[in-house]
Each structure stands twice: as C-alpha cells, then as structure tokens.
C-alpha cells in the first residue's frame, strides 16, 4: 500500500523544516559504487562511507542503503554494528543529501495531528546533468518515505538538499549561484523560487548569498559547503586569510551579505569563521583511478578540490566532521567544539576521498527528524 500523497502548501498545514540540531529519529546514507565517479572501484570511498556511518551510529540510528550487487558486502561489514541497518535500494550514486527527501514536521496540535512528519520529494536532475542517467536517483526520496510510511509532498521544482540550510525559526540561507543556475529551473524567477522555499520549508525569510565555495562546480555552489547555521542568529562561514586565494573574494562577499542581514526574528546575524583546508588538488594518481565512461563528469588531475570543514553532519549530541590530514584540521576541530559545546566533535580522517567524488560528509547524509508525538 502506497503512502499518502499530500497536496497543498506545507506551511499552511503547519509544517516546517526543523534545524539540523533538533532531535533525529535516524540518519540515511547511500553506498558508493560507480567507478566513473569514485576511484579504484570505489573501494577507498566505501571505506570512508563505512567509517562515517559507524561514527554517526554512536549518536543515532543509521540506515545504510546499498544496491543489490553491494548489499551482501555491506551487510557483512555492518552486521555487528548495533545501530546500523542495511537496506537494499537501487540508485545511480550515493548523495542522499541531494536526492533524498527533505523532512518536515509539525506539532501534534496542528490540523490532522496524526500526520506529524512528511517528506518533500523535490525533482532531481543530477545537479544540472553531470550524469547522463539519474533515473534511479529520482526515486530515492519516494523509496525512503515508503519504507518509513511517511506521507509525501511531491514538488515540481528541481532542488537538492545541500543547496539549503534552515535555522528552524523561519530563516533559510541559500546561494544564487546554485538555485538561479539555468540548469535547474530556467522558467522560474528568483521570487518564484523563494516563494516555493517559504511555502514548503515553512520559512518566512530567505537570505541569498551570491556564490558558494570556489571550485564547487559539481553542485554549482551548494550552500552546505560554504556556510551553515550554528544556532539561530549565528552562521559558520568557510574562510581564508589568503587574499591571493580565489576563495577569499567569495568568503568576503558572503561575509558582507550575512553581516548586513537579519533573520526571520529580526536578529542581526553573527558570523563565525572557519578556515578552509589546503588548498587541495586532485593528483594524477587519483584522477587515473576514475574510469572514463562518458556517462559522468570527468575527474581531471590538478583540479582544485571543493574542500571545507563546514560540510559536516550534526547528529544527536555529535558533530561528524571531515579531516583532511591538513594543517588546518586541528583549528577546525577547536572551532567546531567551541561552536557546539554540548556536542562531541568527531573528525573522520581521510575525508578527502569523499571530496574527490564531489562532496563531503553533509552531502552523503540526510537526517530524519524525530517524529513529533500526535
């Protein structure tokens, strides 16, 4: 029996997208395997995904989705992990932040109180078509809400979860570079896109940052690689002190916008800086390990990697963040621990492997909020 498809505007029905630090029921992840995106038959990436899932499972349940071909291997690896379940699911790739549902909730006092959680099923087009086939990815959101028997809000707009961040109190941040890119929704105006975000995320204010992280061409500048909310009124921003680094101009630009902005509650935004690693570049050996099939964006040696410490996951009581073996790792840990004093910061070593594929820890995870009691 299919789950209910909901109609109308979620905000008018009392729904909102919770902030990532609000309680989770579980975390969803996919399992990487495509050899034209992940080097060396995806083996190094699979090791990183496994260690990330295990790190998150110390704080909350994890559902790890793997293809029929990979399921036996993944199940064997995880069978002794008490807080991880493995589910068979077909997909083109493993970026669950972007292809999974955006979960929204409402309190039990709202109308039709029995339905206190739902999933938004945005349209997905593989970040403007960097793969030539994303038909399996397009169904991932449907599959997740079906498994959980959660109602679904279908949406006609193309949007990836990594392109938005919310504070849970009415404010959304995003980038013009991504959401206004003609490879997403060329027939929609900025105002139309903003109104859809307000209606479906339950926010009243959208703050537009011009550009994302330098070199983040795969996603066209997702906001989750550049900045995020630490808490309402406070933003963590990727930064560099090197004025010769192309990232400097982008960080200063974002700082200017954020410093002059107020949130939905009228608070002046405070900005906390966290230095980017590197700069890091793809090596010849790394690029050589990726198969050239003509079905995915090519990986070229010397490419600047879109690496940042902002691309982390907030679990129930934990911060799961990337570590690159870089001189800035220690400072990043200290900034994150100070930003989240009530959380345990866990740095996942070797996260460069995920960056080589075009994202990082936040990109491969999708939180499912705790279902409010009816």
From TrEMBL:
Keywords tagged on the record: Hydrolase
GO molecular function, one term: agmatine deiminase activity
One Pfam family here: PAD_porph
Biological process terms in GO annotation: putrescine biosynthetic process
SUPFAM superfamilies, alphabetized: Pentein (SSF55909)
Keyword field contains Hydrolase: yes
InterPro entries tied to this protein: Agmatine_deiminase, Peptidyl-Arg-deiminase_porph
Gene3D superfamilies per the UniProt record, alphabetical: L-arginine/glycine Amidinotransferase, Chain A
HAMAP family from the UniProt entry: Agmatine_deimin
PANTHER family the UniProt entry points to: AGMATINE DEIMINASE (PTHR31377:SF2), AGMATINE DEIMINASE-RELATED (PTHR31377)
Designated name of the protein: EMB1873 protein
Biological source species: Paspalum notatum var. saurae
């Amino acid at each position: 029996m299919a789950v209910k498809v909901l109609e109308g505007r979620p905000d008018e029905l009392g729904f909102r997208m919770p902030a990532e630090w609000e309680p989770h029921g579980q975390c969803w992840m996919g399992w990487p395997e495509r050899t034209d995106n992940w080097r060396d038959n995806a083996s190094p990436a699979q090791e990183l995904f496994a260690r990330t899932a295990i790190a998150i499972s110390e704080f909350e349940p994890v559902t790890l989705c793997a293809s029929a071909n990979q399921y036996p291997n993944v199940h064997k690896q995880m069978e002794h992990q008490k807080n991880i379940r493995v589910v068979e699911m077909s997909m083109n790739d493993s970026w669950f932040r972007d292809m999974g549902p955006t979960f929204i909730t409402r309190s039990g006092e709202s109308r039709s109180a029995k339905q206190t959680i739902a999933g938004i099923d945005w349209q997905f087009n593989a970040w403007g078509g960097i793969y030539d086939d994303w038909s399996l990815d397009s169904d991932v959101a449907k599959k997740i809400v079906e498994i959980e028997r959660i109602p679904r809000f279908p949406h006609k707009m193309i949007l990836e979860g990594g392109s938005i961040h919310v504070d849970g109190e009415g404010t959304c941040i995003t980038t013009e570079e991504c959401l206004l890119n003609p490879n997403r929704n060329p027939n929609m105006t900025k105002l139309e896109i903003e109104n859809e975000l307000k209606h479906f995320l339950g926010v009243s204010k959208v703050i537009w940052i011009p550009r994302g992280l330098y070199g983040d061409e795969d996603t066209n500048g997702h906001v989750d690689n550049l900045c995020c909310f630490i808490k309402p009124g406070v933003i963590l921003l990727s930064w560099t002190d090197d004025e010769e680094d192309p990232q400097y101009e982008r960080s200063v630009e974002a700082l200017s916008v954020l410093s002059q902005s107020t949130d939905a509650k009228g608070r002046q935004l405070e900005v906390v800086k966290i230095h980017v690693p590197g700069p890091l570049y793809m090596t010849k050996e790394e690029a050589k390990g990726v198969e050239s099939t003509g079905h995915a964006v090519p990986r070229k040696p010397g490419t600047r990697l879109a690496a940042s410490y902002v691309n982390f996951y907030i679990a129930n009581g934990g911060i799961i963040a990337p570590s690159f073996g870089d001189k800035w790792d220690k400072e990043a840990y200290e900034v994150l621990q100070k930003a989240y004093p009530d959380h345990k910061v866990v740095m996942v070593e070797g996260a460069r492997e995920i960056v080589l594929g075009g994202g990082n820890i936040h990109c491969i995870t999708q939180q499912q909020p705790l279902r409010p009691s009816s």
